[in-house]
Amino acid sequence: MDKLKSISSGESINYECKNKDVRSGNFKTLLIFNSNEIPPIKDKSEAVLNRLLIIPFKANFEGIKDESIKDEKLKDKRILEYILYKALHLDFDKFIAPKAVQQQLESYQKENDSIYSYMFSYIEKEYHLASCVPISFITDDYENYCYENGYNSRKRIGKQLVTHLNNRFKEDNYRYEVKNHRFTKENTAELKQLKLNIKTQENNVKSALKRVINS
Questions:
Q1: Does position 1 have pLDDT exceeding 70, yes or no?
Q2: Dihedrals φ, ψ of 25, to 5°?
Q3: Could you report how far apart the first and last alpha carbons of the chain are, in Å?
Q4: What letter does residue 52 receive in the DSSP assignment?
Q5: Distance of CA 215 to CAs 129, 169, 173, 182, 211, Å?
Q6: Residue 154: is it exposed, middle or buried by C-beta count within 10 angstroms (0-12/13-18/19+)?
Q7: Can you tell me the distance from the alpha carbon of 28 to that of 6, in angstroms, rounded to the nearest whole number?
Q8: Centroid of chain to Cα 32
Q9: Is the pLDDT of residue 198 over 80?
């Protein structure tokens, strides 16, 4: 995946032919993959997602076959030269991401990243409205979510969940962060009001996901 990221952004990579010395080169090219299903990617970072455009092919080609496309048009030099000319002279800076592509990327991120998928459950339960939630509770809740939805759970999810929440609410006047926090009676009352099944936390210092108003 690291090499694919480098190739897609024009960075230098090392390569070698069999029984030859290692060489370095730049390959700035478009990578196109055709697949019935999209395989999971171990790298869950934004660096990968920012390089992806997932285009759903939902057209239905049932009906009368036009054999001339394969037998004539794809062998016609004039047609092929015209297509190549149009491709080389496009007024083009970057690919657009229409709504269908954005929805497909969103769907894939939910399938590929259990923490991203869990974020929607976290928001649906309104836990994101709490000023602070113990990371220990979030971890247990996340692992239960993974078990119920067939995901393999990951470790140390706090920082990644913070990243997803901050991206989700980047237009709002607050941010999320993970910090040690000494819980007060007010914190406990707030958590109980949100129906968190949690023990009393007063005066305990715990790692917490905090919701902080931007100054």
A1: no
A2: -155, 165
A3: 39
A4: -
A5: 18, 16, 9, 21, 13
A6: middle
A7: 9
A8: 19
A9: no
